Amino acid sequence: MKKVKYCFLTGLIILIISFSGNAQNYNWAKLDSVNNLARIYTGLDHSFAFGLHYGRILNGKKVIWAPFADVSFPSGDPVGDDYNFKIGTLARLFQFEDWKFSFNVSIVNRQNSNPFVKMQSLGSESGFQFGYYKLKWYANLNFSVGSSIVTNFQHTEAYKGNFSGAKDGWYENASNSQLFSVNTGYSLRKMDATLSLGLLRTEEFKSSPSLPYYIKIGLNYLF
Length: 223
Description:
mainly beta, Lipocalin, ten-stranded antiparallel β-barrel, 11 strands, 10% helix, elongated
């Protein structure tokens, strides 16, 4: 029971620390005539972090698809020790005049380490956005859910010296968190300056992490 509780809580901590939602800051009003979107972003999300994002724009007759890859790193550690990598897609499903509805889904690989253990988890994120989009600016509301499914634990020798029963390996830990955010941006030709403000909740809205709010700024380049 202790092992299950330990894995569950540790997996939830990973999810809370690294779940950014990267709340979808795409100006759908500008994507009809471009093929690519590159994004850099930074902000406060339990720690100061920065990230890179690339999306490929696929214009269909009714639906615009945007497959993407996204990677982010917390500051202060050697780049690559901790990371959050996503691969997935966004889609603008329908619109009414300047009001548009979209969704996103992705597979997520995260790695976090501390003096006691290195943890690598696999999970997923999904969500939807509804907003008002013009060529010069936009604003939307986002709701996303992030889930951690399995986590690999590699304990340090220091930890094993104090807890001889610690075992490395993959453990199932079904945990989730929810992200509510407001996103906006101002557009100038091929560039978008973006801002996200969000609230993070965990485990079916029952609790909040110690720092439940986050803020992110970003810059999109369309080409």
